[in-house]
Design a protein that fits this description.
single chain, alpha+beta, 2 domains, six-stranded antiparallel beta sheet, transcription regulation, RmlC-like_jellyroll, DNA-binding, Helix-turn-helix transcriptional regulator
């Protein structure tokens, strides 16, 4: 059962605050938790110190594994779904203070940025000079962070929305392209062209990307490779590990460890 994320404050409108950067620590509180669709003028960096978060925006799903963040430009509608063990920070930034993409992206977070985010969230004494110095370093470092390819493109096309909704709900669904085409009353070739046109990926590559996002989310929450492999409908753990390594260059355990070590 999904619960609302537990905030340390009530009724705070971040757009009413004059502070250029606002950092808020948010806990999932032991259950899968969600922030439903909303928007604000300030841009937002969703940073995961533990567990993981999936951000949904118009046109895509974005994955936030441990020690990474997702940048959401100001004014963009979005929702956040966190795993039960997630340790999150929401960083709200005035748009004209930093040069970041005008689209969502998943970025690595360096040890320096991580400590700045934690420190800014823990400030208890009002020290304008120190806060300003920390914010200045943070804004200077953030645009330098490398981008990770943990994005699932989504389409507003009604037939593809039906397929996407079904696969997001049940990633283990192994219906073939031909079977999905029949399900949405298209020929197999027509559906294949439509998927490429709307997402830029073949159907097989698109479904694989969904599997990678789900796999990283579940592995980061503590699930075993065996369980994740079964939940995604793979015939064997070896087949799952082979897919993961081919796509991301490392088997699951090494990939997650490398994300933590690099950041």
């Amino acid at each position: 059962m999904r619960q609302p994320l537990r905030y340390p404050w009530l009724n705070l409108d971040v757009d009413d605050q004059s502070t250029p950067v606002i950092v808020v620590r948010v806990d999932a509180d032991g259950t899968q938790a969600e922030v439903p669709d909303h928007r604000h003028r300030k841009g937002q960096l969703v940073f995961s110190l533990g567990g993981s978060v999936t951000c949904r925006v118009p046109g895509g799903l974005w994955m936030v594994p441990p020690h990474c963040g997702v940048w959401i430009p100001g004014g963009m509608a979005h929702s956040n779904l966190a795993t039960a063990n997630a340790r999150l920070f929401f960083v709200y930034i005035e748009a004209d203070l930093v040069v970041l993409p005008d689209r969502c992206c998943t970025i690595s977070i360096s040890p320096l940025l991580r400590e700045l985010i934690v420190e800014l969230s823990d400030l208890t004494q009002h020290d304008d000079g120190r806060e300003a110095r920390l914010i200045s370093v943070f804004l200077g470092e953030l645009p330098r962070m490398p981008v990770q390819q943990l994005h699932l493109p989504l389409s507003a096309e009604p037939r593809l929305k039906r397929i996407a909704a079904a696969l997001v709900k049940n990633p283990a669904d192994r219906r073939t392209l031909a079977e999905w085409a029949s399900h949405v009353a298209l020929s197999e070739s027509s559906l294949a062209r439509l998927v490429v046109k709307e997402t830029g990926l073949t159907f097989g590559r698109w479904r694989q990307q969904l599997h990678l996002i789900v796999a990283i989310r579940e592995l980061a929450s503590g699930a075993s490779v065996q369980r994740v492999s079964a939940d995604l409908g793979y015939e064997s753990v070896t087949a799952f590990i082979t897919m993961f390594k081919k796509a991301l260059g490392k088997p699951p355990a090494r990939y997650l460890n490398s994300v933590v070590q690099k950041t």
